## 1
Amino acid sequence: MKKTFSFLLIATFAAYAVFLQLNSQPSAAVPISLVAKTNQANNNADVALNNKTSSSTAPVAPTAQPPAAAATSGAAKPVAAASPAPAPAPKPAPAPVVAAKPKGQYRDGTYTGDSVDAYYGNVQVAAVIANGKLADVKILDYPQDRRTSQYINGQALPILVSEAVSAQSGNVDAVSGASETSPAFVRSLNSALAQAKN
C-alpha cells in the first residue's frame, strides 16, 4: 500500500513538472512538423466524412429541360398571350337640343289682314314676312270706284307700305290727303302682323 501511494505521488509530481515545463515554453516552440501532421490528420478526417456522406445520399435526378429550351428544340413556338383590349372610351354626353331661336320678331310667310272700312271702300293688306322681318305689304283691296279715290290711294298706299317696311310694324303716320285710307291701312296691317308674331 505504501508503494502504491509512493508511486502515485511520484507520477503526479512528474506530470506536474512536465506541465510546468510545457507552459513555460512559448507557443512558437512547437515543432512545425507536429502542426503539419495535425493538419494532415484533420484533412484526412474531413475527406473520409465527406465520402461517407456523399455515398449515403440518394443520387440526384437529372433536371428537366426548361420549357423555353424544349420549345426552341421543337417546331412549334409558344404563342404570346394576347394583351387585354383597351377599355372603350366613354361616349360624350349628347348636347342638349336647343330650339332654334327665331331670326326676327315674325314667322316667315304671308299673312292676310282684316278688311277695314275706309268710308269710300274697304282697305285690306297682306304682310309678307321673310327671315323674320316684314319684307313687303301687298294691297289686296282699296277704295277705287271714284277717280279721286284712285288718285289719292295711288299716291298714299305706296308711301304707307314703304314706311311700314322701314318701321317693321303697322304703326306709321297718316299720309296727308288720305285721312280715311291711312288708319284703315294701319288696322289691316296690324291684324296681319299679329298673326305673324313669334
## 2
Amino acid sequence: MIRNLREIYQYRALLFTMTARELKARYRASVLGFLWTFLNPTLNMLVFAVVGQLMGAWQPKYPFFLFVGQLPWIYFATSIIAGASAISDRRDLLTKVRFPAQVLPSVVVLTNLANYMLALPLLLALGLFFGDFPTWHVVYFLPVVLLQTVLTLAIVYAVSAFNVNFRDLQHIVANVITMMFFLTPIIWTVQGKPDWVQKWVPILNPMATFVIAYRDIFYDHRVPDLQAIAAWGGVSLLLLWVTSLIFESRREEFAELV
C-alpha cells in the first residue's frame, strides 16, 4: 500500500491532469455540459422522492433527506461501476508506454469525488430552501468523506484488477451495486425499524454507516456515530492494504491480458 501511495504521489501531476480531462470529457458533447453535474442527482432525487412517497416513506423535508444520502451513494456506486473496467478498457495506455497502472483506478475515484464536491452547493441550497441551515457539525464532513474515499479506492483496486481476467465481473458488480442500493438507507431510514435492522445494517453495510453519518451532519445536525465510523475506517484501511497487494501482484500482467 505504501508503494502504491508513493507512486500515486510521484505521478500526482498525471493523476490530476487525467482527472481534469475526464471531468471535461464527461459532458463535452452535450448541450447542457457541466450543468449535468447538478441535473443528474436532482432528477434522480425527484424520481426517488415520488417513488418514496408512493411507497409510504415519510420524513420531514423528504427531498432534502433523500438528497443527503443520494449524493455520497452516487459517488460510491459510479466509482465502483466505472472502476471495474478502469484497467481493461485502457489498453491504449498500458501497452504503448510504461504507464503507472494504479493511476487509472485512482482517476476514476478522484473524478467522481470531484463531482460529489461540485454538487455540494446544490445540497446546501436545497437545505436552505427547506429552511435547514448548516451547523458546526459540518466539521465532521471531511473525515467521513475521506474514509469513504479510502473504502471506495480499496474496492476499485480489487474489482479493476480481477476484471482484467474475468470480464463478467463488471456486469456482476453493476448488479450487486443495484441490489446494495436498496439495502442502504437512502430512500428509507433505520429509525423505527426492528432492532436487528438498526443494529446489523450499519455493521454489514459500510455505505449505510456513511449515509447515516452524512444525515447526522447535514439533516439531523448532530455528531455522527464516531465509533461506527472509526470501525469502518479501520476496516477500509485494512482493505486498502490488502487490495493494494493484490493489485501490485497482478500489475505486470495487465499489459498482456488487456
